[in-house]
Amino acid sequence: LWPRMLSLLASRLLCTSSNGLFFLSNLLKGVERLDKHIYRCSDLIEGVVASQRIFGGQVIGQALNACADTVPEGFLPNSLHTCFLKGGKNACDTNKPVLYLIQPQHDSATRCCRSVLVKQQEDTIISLSVVYQKPESVLEIHHEDKMPEAPDPDQLPKCDSWFHTYLKLRGADEVDYMIVDMLTKGISHTFDYREIQFYNKSNLNLPRNLFWVKAHESLKGLRPCIHHAVASYISDTLMIAAALRPHVELFTKVTQIASLNHCVWFHRHDFSSDQWMLYETLSTVAAGSRAFVTGRMWSQDGRLILSASQEALVRISEQNV
């Protein structure tokens, strides 16, 4: 047990700063260009600390950042569609980097499309397609959903405290606390989350979450594609949590949780991922060992930045039910 714990600690130190926070900009910018359309990255973090599996949101962000180098200046991401094929392993092991193989699919005066295969050693672990669009200065239609009412984020508790409040209301045991800490440690070290709706007895079973969220570190001065990449990264975090929220009593019986696909549509580009953004996630259905979740993200001044959707695999052990 101790060698395993020391190994995990060593890998964690390689990925964090002196104060324990992940260098988010380095994780996204640390993609080395090997050829015109081939990139490599060895600086990865785990989605779940003890599993050492690569976190899909980070790979999405890095792929989006790499693709930005292959499109003409002035083109900005319109949408991305991701299929998670196989779990990447051994995060922070520099001997097992991931490769981003980019294939141009379409280029026109107003739109570009790129497909990306993400490979680790011999395995293709993720497939993405990204559509870029050149902003048009023409008359356009406009409407958008109003941002939900929310208190000042600086007056709300951080991520770890509301999770523990939730578990306490559920009457959770020590194992549940350990599982939640493992699921959220890497996320809370990368982003600052503030949950809006304090948990109480009347809303425990709602498959909905509402957060203020921003990057821990300043991203000022970085090119716009970094903010798109970080927002995409954020959009993948804790989406599954909305689907699991009504089923916390089954935490210890879950044998597998994995994102199957993830999509993002950008509605605006004038936003900063190091400023507070309101992120709402809602699971409309869970059936057939799969959960479907949608997400919407607003800037603090009420502009709808992006919409997202995700399907996740959630398997329960029949022996433990």
Task: Characterise the protein shown here.
This is Acyl-CoA thioesterase 2. With 321 residues, the protein is of the alpha+beta class. The protein folds into two domains: 22-135, Thiol Ester Dehydrase, Chain A (Roll), CATH 3.10.129; 150-320, Hotdog Thioesterase (Thiol Ester Dehydrase, Chain A, Roll). The protein contains seven helices and twelve strands. Strands 1-2-4-5-6-3-9-12-11-10-8-7 form a twelve-stranded antiparallel beta sheet. Helix 3 packs antiparallel against helix 6 and helix 4 runs antiparallel to helix 5 (174-188). The longest helix is centred in the middle third of the chain and has 15 residues, at 174-188. It is globular, with a radius of gyration of 19 Å.
How would the blueprint of this fold be written?
Blueprint: H1 2-15, H2 24-29, E1 32-35, E2 38-41, H3 56-68, E3 76-84, E4 98-107, E5 111-120, E6 123-133, H4 159-170, H5 174-188, E7 191-195, E8 208-215, H6 224-236, H7 239-244, E9 254-266, E10 277-287, E11 290-299, E12 304-316
Antiparallel strand pairs: 1-2, 2-4, 3-6, 3-9, 4-5, 5-6, 7-8, 8-10, 9-12, 10-11, 11-12
Helix pairs in contact: 3-6, 4-5
**CATH class (first level) name of the largest domain:** Alpha Beta
CATH architecture of the largest domain: Roll
Strand order of the largest sheet: 1-2-4-5-6-3-9-12-11-10-8-7
Strand residues, percent: 25-35%
The CATH homologous superfamily of the largest domain is named Hotdog Thioesterase
Q: What is the total tally of β strands? A: 12
User: What is the total domain count?
Assistant: 2
Gyration radius over CA: 19 Å
What composes the largest sheet?
Answer: 12 strands, antiparallel
Distance between the termini: 28 Å
**What percent of the residues sit in helical stretches (DSSP H or I)?**
10-25%
Query: What is the helix/strand order?
Result: HHEEHEEEEHHEEHHEEEE
Q: Which regions contain 5 or more consecutive residues with pLDDT less than 50?
A: 1-22, 47-51
Number of helices: 7
Instruction: Fill in the CATH topology of the largest domain.
Output: Thiol Ester Dehydrase, Chain A
**What is the general shape?**
globular
Pfam families: Acyl_CoA_thio
GO molecular function: fatty acyl-CoA hydrolase activity
InterPro entries: Acyl-CoA_hotdog (IPR042171), Acyl_CoA_thio (IPR003703), HotDog_dom_sf (IPR029069), TesB_C (IPR025652)
Keywords: Signal
